[in-house]
């Protein structure tokens, strides 16, 4: 369960990004976050990923406040989270396999288990057989799917996606959303920020609309 309790976020510039947000997501839920540019969608996701901290209020995961996590516990917490950005930020001098394996290598996983997990992730995003390809040879949709596979390979319990389909044509965008829905069916809690109203409506999930502050 993810809870926002009276959460406000003001950036050091003085910009208020979120004001008094109260929100509860059940474990295993999939929700969309919409709202105009600047409404705070990315900020909301960053608070869950602990890339930012609230200036007021509390974010709780499974009943535990993130503010109580010490610095040394943050990497461990982040390992439970898969974060997908609009631009997948792949390493262009590494193969698809190596890009996806990166989080596992950081976690110190052995070679056989790494290979098994990467293959499973490739299979889930429909890229089986492309492990030796370099990202430059991939289409935008394929690159995005490599980014998704890399975010999933650790089996995160929480998946955060910030405009994951922004650069893709409608058909690919729909495919990517169905991929998230599949991970959700396997038990992950999924939060997706998206501008694409038509696509969000088609997915028939709970939608949270953020209003821009001031
Ligand atoms: N690092 C930052 N420093 C200062 N202000 C920021 C920072 N990040 C975001 N903001 C401001 O906080 C507000 C919310 O930004 P945020 O990026 O969360 O909105 P968003 O809903 O994701 O917008 P978009 O749809 O354009 O991605 C905006 O006014 C933005 O300018
Ligand atoms: Mg944003």
TrEMBL record:
Family from the record: Belongs to the ABC transporter superfamily.
Subcellular location field: Cell inner membrane; Cell membrane
Any one GO biological process: cell division
SMART domains xref list: AAA
GO molecular function: ATP binding
Keywords: ATP-binding, Cell cycle, Cell division, Cell membrane, Membrane, Nucleotide-binding
Gene: ftsE
ABC transporter domain location: 2-213
Function: Part of the ABC transporter FtsEX involved in cellular division. Important for assembly or stability of the septal ring.
Xref: SUPFAM superfamilies: P-loop containing nucleoside triphosphate hydrolases
Main location: membrane
Name listed for the protein in its UniProt record: Cell division ATP-binding protein FtsE
Topological type in the membrane: Peripheral membrane protein
Source organism superkingdom: Bacteria
NCBIfam families: FtsE
Quaternary structure, from the entry: Homodimer. Forms a membrane-associated complex with FtsX.
